[in-house]
Protein backbone atom coordinates (compact mmCIF):
# COMPACT_ATOMS: atom_id res chain seq x y z
CA UNK A 1 0.00 0.00 0.00
CA UNK A 2 1.34 3.43 -0.95
CA UNK A 3 2.12 5.93 1.78
CA UNK A 4 -0.33 8.60 2.87
CA UNK A 5 0.82 11.93 1.43
CA UNK A 6 1.02 14.62 4.11
CA UNK A 7 -0.33 17.76 2.43
CA UNK A 8 1.66 20.55 4.05
CA UNK A 9 -0.02 23.20 1.91
CA UNK A 10 -3.51 22.29 3.09
CA UNK A 11 -2.47 22.14 6.74
CA UNK A 12 -0.63 25.47 6.45
CA UNK A 13 -3.55 27.13 4.64
CA UNK A 14 -5.85 26.21 7.51
CA UNK A 15 -3.38 27.67 10.01
CA UNK A 16 -3.02 30.87 7.97
CA UNK A 17 -6.79 31.29 7.70
CA UNK A 18 -7.06 31.17 11.49
CA UNK A 19 -4.07 33.50 11.79
CA UNK A 20 -5.75 36.05 9.50
CA UNK A 21 -8.74 36.21 11.85
CA UNK A 22 -6.57 36.62 14.93
CA UNK A 23 -4.41 39.25 13.26
CA UNK A 24 -7.46 41.29 12.30
CA UNK A 25 -8.78 41.10 15.86
CA UNK A 26 -5.43 42.26 17.20
CA UNK A 27 -5.31 45.20 14.77
CA UNK A 28 -8.87 46.22 15.70
CA UNK A 29 -8.09 46.09 19.42
CA UNK A 30 -4.71 47.80 19.40
CA UNK A 31 -4.48 49.78 16.16
CA UNK A 32 -1.09 48.17 15.55
CA UNK A 33 -0.31 46.15 12.42
CA UNK A 34 2.22 43.36 13.17
CA UNK A 35 5.43 43.80 11.19
CA UNK A 36 7.97 41.20 10.09
CA UNK A 37 11.38 42.49 9.02
CA UNK A 38 13.49 40.25 6.79
CA UNK A 39 17.21 40.84 6.43
CA UNK A 40 19.02 39.28 3.48
CA UNK A 41 22.74 39.47 2.72
CA UNK A 42 23.82 39.06 -0.89
CA UNK A 43 21.80 38.38 -4.02
CA UNK A 44 21.28 34.62 -3.94
CA UNK A 45 18.20 34.03 -6.15
CA UNK A 46 16.76 31.27 -3.96
CA UNK A 47 17.11 33.34 -0.78
CA UNK A 48 15.51 36.36 -2.44
CA UNK A 49 12.62 34.19 -3.63
CA UNK A 50 12.11 32.80 -0.12
CA UNK A 51 12.03 36.29 1.38
CA UNK A 52 9.59 37.54 -1.25
CA UNK A 53 7.31 34.58 -0.64
CA UNK A 54 7.31 35.17 3.11
CA UNK A 55 6.58 38.87 2.55
CA UNK A 56 3.59 38.00 0.35
CA UNK A 57 2.24 35.61 2.98
CA UNK A 58 2.61 38.37 5.58
CA UNK A 59 0.37 40.66 3.56
CA UNK A 60 -2.18 37.88 3.00
CA UNK A 61 -2.71 37.43 6.75
CA UNK A 62 -2.91 41.17 7.37
CA UNK A 63 0.63 41.95 8.49
CA UNK A 64 3.21 44.28 7.03
CA UNK A 65 6.71 43.31 5.99
CA UNK A 66 9.99 45.05 5.44
CA UNK A 67 12.98 43.73 3.56
CA UNK A 68 16.49 44.95 4.27
CA UNK A 69 18.85 43.93 1.47
CA UNK A 70 22.56 44.14 2.24
CA UNK A 71 25.47 43.65 -0.18
CA UNK A 72 27.43 40.42 -0.16
CA UNK A 73 30.43 42.43 1.12
CA UNK A 74 28.64 43.17 4.41
CA UNK A 75 30.79 42.32 7.43
CA UNK A 76 29.66 40.53 10.55
CA UNK A 77 29.89 43.79 12.49
CA UNK A 78 27.76 45.65 9.95
CA UNK A 79 25.13 42.92 9.94
CA UNK A 80 25.05 42.82 13.73
CA UNK A 81 24.48 46.59 13.78
CA UNK A 82 21.52 46.27 11.40
CA UNK A 83 19.98 43.47 13.47
CA UNK A 84 20.43 45.37 16.72
CA UNK A 85 18.87 48.47 15.20
CA UNK A 86 15.90 46.42 14.02
CA UNK A 87 15.60 44.88 17.48
CA UNK A 88 15.40 48.39 18.97
CA UNK A 89 12.78 49.58 16.48
CA UNK A 90 9.36 49.49 18.23
CA UNK A 91 7.50 49.31 14.92
CA UNK A 92 9.08 45.91 14.14
CA UNK A 93 7.66 42.86 15.90
CA UNK A 94 9.63 40.01 14.36
CA UNK A 95 13.01 39.69 12.67
CA UNK A 96 14.07 37.07 10.13
CA UNK A 97 17.68 36.77 9.05
CA UNK A 98 17.55 34.79 5.81
CA UNK A 99 20.06 31.99 5.91
CA UNK A 100 22.53 30.89 4.87
CA UNK A 101 24.57 34.07 4.99
CA UNK A 102 27.85 34.45 3.05
CA UNK A 103 30.68 32.32 4.41
CA UNK A 104 32.77 35.19 5.75
CA UNK A 105 30.03 36.19 8.21
CA UNK A 106 29.84 34.74 11.72
CA UNK A 107 26.28 33.45 11.44
CA UNK A 108 25.98 32.63 15.14
CA UNK A 109 27.03 36.14 16.15
CA UNK A 110 24.47 37.53 13.71
CA UNK A 111 21.66 35.33 14.97
CA UNK A 112 22.42 36.22 18.58
CA UNK A 113 22.25 39.94 17.78
CA UNK A 114 18.48 39.51 17.36
CA UNK A 115 16.46 40.38 20.43
CA UNK A 116 14.87 37.30 22.02
CA UNK A 117 11.54 39.16 22.00
CA UNK A 118 11.72 39.45 18.20
CA UNK A 119 13.42 36.16 17.33
CA UNK A 120 10.33 34.78 15.59
CA UNK A 121 12.44 32.34 13.57
CA UNK A 122 13.79 30.75 16.76
CA UNK A 123 17.46 30.96 15.75
CA UNK A 124 19.17 32.51 18.77
CA UNK A 125 21.14 30.56 21.36
CA UNK A 126 18.53 31.63 23.92
CA UNK A 127 15.75 30.15 21.81
CA UNK A 128 17.60 26.83 21.50
CA UNK A 129 18.20 26.70 25.25
CA UNK A 130 14.53 27.37 25.91
CA UNK A 131 13.47 24.64 23.48
CA UNK A 132 15.80 22.16 25.14
CA UNK A 133 15.22 23.05 28.78
CA UNK A 134 11.96 24.89 29.47
CA UNK A 135 9.79 24.89 26.37
CA UNK A 136 9.43 28.66 26.51
CA UNK A 137 10.33 31.28 23.92
CA UNK A 138 9.92 31.05 20.17
CA UNK A 139 10.62 27.69 18.56
CA UNK A 140 12.71 27.13 15.45
CA UNK A 141 10.15 27.47 12.68
CA UNK A 142 10.89 24.41 10.56
CA UNK A 143 11.11 21.93 13.48
CA UNK A 144 7.99 23.45 15.03
CA UNK A 145 6.21 23.21 11.69
CA UNK A 146 7.22 19.56 11.40
CA UNK A 147 5.64 18.83 14.78
CA UNK A 148 2.46 20.48 13.55
CA UNK A 149 2.46 18.20 10.49
CA UNK A 150 2.95 15.14 12.69
CA UNK A 151 0.12 16.24 14.98
CA UNK A 152 -2.20 16.84 12.01
CA UNK A 153 -1.37 13.37 10.74
CA UNK A 154 -2.22 11.83 14.10
CA UNK A 155 1.29 10.57 14.83
CA UNK A 156 1.81 9.66 18.50
CA UNK A 157 5.44 10.40 19.36
CA UNK A 158 5.64 9.11 22.92
CA UNK A 159 7.83 6.04 23.02
CA UNK A 160 8.55 6.10 19.30
CA UNK A 161 12.06 5.95 17.85
CA UNK A 162 12.76 9.09 15.82
CA UNK A 163 15.87 9.37 13.65
CA UNK A 164 16.90 12.91 12.74
CA UNK A 165 19.31 12.99 9.80
CA UNK A 166 20.97 16.38 10.03
CA UNK A 167 22.63 18.42 12.76
CA UNK A 168 22.30 22.08 11.81
CA UNK A 169 21.69 24.46 14.74
CA UNK A 170 18.46 25.77 13.24
CA UNK A 171 16.92 22.51 12.02
CA UNK A 172 18.41 19.16 13.00
CA UNK A 173 19.51 19.99 16.54
CA UNK A 174 16.33 21.77 17.67
CA UNK A 175 14.22 19.11 15.93
CA UNK A 176 15.70 16.47 18.17
CA UNK A 177 15.10 18.58 21.26
CA UNK A 178 11.43 19.09 20.41
CA UNK A 179 10.97 15.38 19.73
CA UNK A 180 12.57 14.54 23.08
CA UNK A 181 10.16 16.90 24.82
CA UNK A 182 7.32 14.97 23.16
CA UNK A 183 8.56 11.69 24.63
CA UNK A 184 10.27 10.22 21.58
CA UNK A 185 13.58 8.38 21.73
CA UNK A 186 15.87 10.33 19.41
CA UNK A 187 18.90 9.30 17.39
CA UNK A 188 20.90 12.00 15.61
CA UNK A 189 22.56 11.03 12.35
CA UNK A 190 24.22 12.95 9.53
CA UNK A 191 25.90 12.49 6.17
CA UNK A 192 28.98 10.91 7.77
CA UNK A 193 27.16 8.49 10.04
CA UNK A 194 28.50 4.94 9.70
CA UNK A 195 25.80 2.52 8.47
CA UNK A 196 23.19 5.24 8.10
CA UNK A 197 20.88 2.73 6.43
CA UNK A 198 20.64 0.62 9.59
CA UNK A 199 19.77 3.63 11.74
CA UNK A 200 17.08 4.79 9.34
CA UNK A 201 15.67 1.26 9.05
CA UNK A 202 15.07 1.18 12.82
CA UNK A 203 13.08 4.43 12.90
CA UNK A 204 9.36 4.83 13.45
CA UNK A 205 9.76 8.47 12.40
CA UNK A 206 12.43 9.74 10.00
CA UNK A 207 13.24 13.45 9.81
CA UNK A 208 15.44 14.15 6.79
CA UNK A 209 17.24 17.47 7.20
CA UNK A 210 20.74 16.98 5.85
CA UNK A 211 20.65 18.87 2.54
CA UNK A 212 21.92 16.04 0.33
CA UNK A 213 19.66 15.07 -2.59
CA UNK A 214 18.05 11.63 -2.09
CA UNK A 215 20.63 10.59 0.49
CA UNK A 216 18.01 8.49 2.26
CA UNK A 217 17.00 5.57 0.08
CA UNK A 218 13.46 4.33 -0.11
CA UNK A 219 14.50 0.76 0.60
CA UNK A 220 15.83 1.86 4.01
CA UNK A 221 12.43 2.94 5.29
CA UNK A 222 10.84 0.69 7.90
CA UNK A 223 7.38 -0.49 6.78
CA UNK A 224 4.79 1.98 8.07
CA UNK A 225 7.30 4.60 9.21
CA UNK A 226 6.46 8.29 8.98
CA UNK A 227 8.91 10.19 6.77
CA UNK A 228 9.28 13.97 6.96
CA UNK A 229 11.54 15.38 4.27
CA UNK A 230 12.80 18.85 5.21
CA UNK A 231 15.40 18.86 2.45
CA UNK A 232 15.06 21.12 -0.53
CA UNK A 233 17.66 20.75 -3.25
CA UNK A 234 18.04 21.99 -6.79
CA UNK A 235 15.34 20.65 -9.08
CA UNK A 236 12.70 20.33 -6.32
CA UNK A 237 14.41 17.24 -4.96
CA UNK A 238 14.31 16.33 -1.28
CA UNK A 239 16.72 14.41 0.93
CA UNK A 240 14.60 11.24 0.60
CA UNK A 241 14.30 9.04 -2.47
CA UNK A 242 10.62 9.86 -2.66
CA UNK A 243 9.23 7.48 -5.28
CA UNK A 244 11.13 4.53 -3.83
CA UNK A 245 9.98 5.38 -0.29
CA UNK A 246 6.26 5.49 -1.15
CA UNK A 247 5.69 1.70 -1.03
CA UNK A 248 7.37 1.45 2.40
CA UNK A 249 6.33 4.52 4.39
CA UNK A 250 3.06 4.86 6.24
CA UNK A 251 3.03 8.61 5.60
CA UNK A 252 5.42 10.96 3.84
CA UNK A 253 5.79 14.64 2.95
CA UNK A 254 6.34 15.64 -0.67
CA UNK A 255 8.95 18.14 -1.85
CA UNK A 256 7.77 20.77 -2.45
CA UNK A 257 4.43 21.12 -0.67
CA UNK A 258 5.30 19.44 2.59
CA UNK A 259 7.44 21.10 5.22
CA UNK A 260 7.99 24.51 3.56
CA UNK A 261 4.45 25.91 3.85
CA UNK A 262 4.25 25.03 7.56
CA UNK A 263 7.59 26.74 8.20
CA UNK A 264 6.14 30.00 6.89
CA UNK A 265 2.90 29.54 8.83
CA UNK A 266 4.81 29.12 12.11
CA UNK A 267 7.00 32.14 11.32
CA UNK A 268 3.94 34.35 10.90
CA UNK A 269 2.14 32.89 13.92
CA UNK A 270 5.16 33.71 16.05
CA UNK A 271 5.27 37.21 14.60
CA UNK A 272 1.72 37.80 15.82
CA UNK A 273 2.64 36.31 19.19
CA UNK A 274 5.58 38.73 19.42
CA UNK A 275 3.29 41.65 18.57
CA UNK A 276 0.80 40.59 21.25
CA UNK A 277 3.56 40.35 23.87
CA UNK A 278 4.91 43.77 22.92
CA UNK A 279 1.42 45.28 23.16
CA UNK A 280 0.96 43.76 26.62
CA UNK A 281 4.28 45.20 27.77
CA UNK A 282 3.33 48.64 26.44
CA UNK A 283 -0.05 48.48 28.15
CA UNK A 284 1.51 47.51 31.49
CA UNK A 285 4.03 50.33 31.18
CA UNK A 286 1.35 52.88 30.35
CA UNK A 287 -0.82 51.74 33.26
CA UNK A 288 2.13 51.97 35.61
CA UNK A 289 2.98 55.48 34.43
CA UNK A 290 -0.63 56.62 34.87
CA UNK A 291 -0.61 55.48 38.49
CA UNK A 292 2.55 57.36 39.37
CA UNK A 293 1.67 60.73 40.91
CA UNK A 294 3.85 63.73 41.76
CA UNK A 295 7.04 63.15 43.64
CA UNK A 296 6.30 62.31 47.30
CA UNK A 297 7.11 64.98 49.86
CA UNK A 298 10.13 64.02 51.87
CA UNK A 299 9.81 64.71 55.60
CA UNK A 300 13.02 66.71 55.69
CA UNK A 301 11.58 69.05 53.00
CA UNK A 302 9.00 70.31 55.51
CA UNK A 303 11.66 71.34 58.00
Defining key terms:
methionine biosynthesis, Rossmann fold, disordered C terminus, amino-acid biosynthesis, NAD(P)-bd_dom_sf, 303 residues, EC 3.5.4.9, 3-stranded parallel β-sheet, EC 1.5.1.5, alpha/beta
Q: Could you give a quick summary of the protein structure above?
A:
44% of the residues lie in helices and 13% in strands. Among the domains are: 27-114, Leucine Dehydrogenase, chain A, domain 1 (Rossmann fold), CATH 3.40.50; 141-258, NAD(P)-binding Rossmann-like Domain (Rossmann fold, 3-Layer(aba) Sandwich).
Could you please describe the fold and organization of this structure?
The chain is of the alpha/beta class and 303 residues long. Among the domains are: 27-114, Leucine Dehydrogenase, chain A, domain 1 (Rossmann fold, 3-Layer(aba) Sandwich), CATH 3.40.50; 141-258, Rossmann fold (3-Layer(aba) Sandwich), CATH 3.40.50.720. Helices cover 44% and strands 13% of the residues. It is built from ten helices and nine strands. The protein has helices at 8-30, 45-60, 76-88, 107-111, 125-133, 141-153, 172-181, 196-201, 242-245, 259-291; strands spanning 4-5, 35-41, 64-70, 94-97, 161-165, 185-189, 205-208, 226-229, 251-252. It has a six-stranded parallel beta sheet with strand order 1-9-8-7-5-6. The chain has a three-stranded parallel beta sheet with strand order 3-2-4, with helices on both faces. Helix 1 (8-30) runs parallel beside helix 10 (259-291) and helix 6 (141-153) packs across helix 10. The longest helix is centred in the C-terminal third of the chain and has 33 residues, at 259-291. The protein is globular. The termini are far apart. The model is unreliable at 296-303 (pLDDT under 50).
Amino acid sequence: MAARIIDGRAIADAALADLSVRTRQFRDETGHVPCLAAVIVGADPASKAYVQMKAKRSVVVGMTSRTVELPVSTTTEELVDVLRASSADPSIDGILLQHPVPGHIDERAAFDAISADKDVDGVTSAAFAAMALTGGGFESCTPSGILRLLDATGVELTGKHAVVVGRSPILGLPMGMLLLRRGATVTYCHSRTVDLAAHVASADVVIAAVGVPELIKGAWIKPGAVVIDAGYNEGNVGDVEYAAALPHAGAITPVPGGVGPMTVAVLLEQTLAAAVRAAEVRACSENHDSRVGPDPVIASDRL
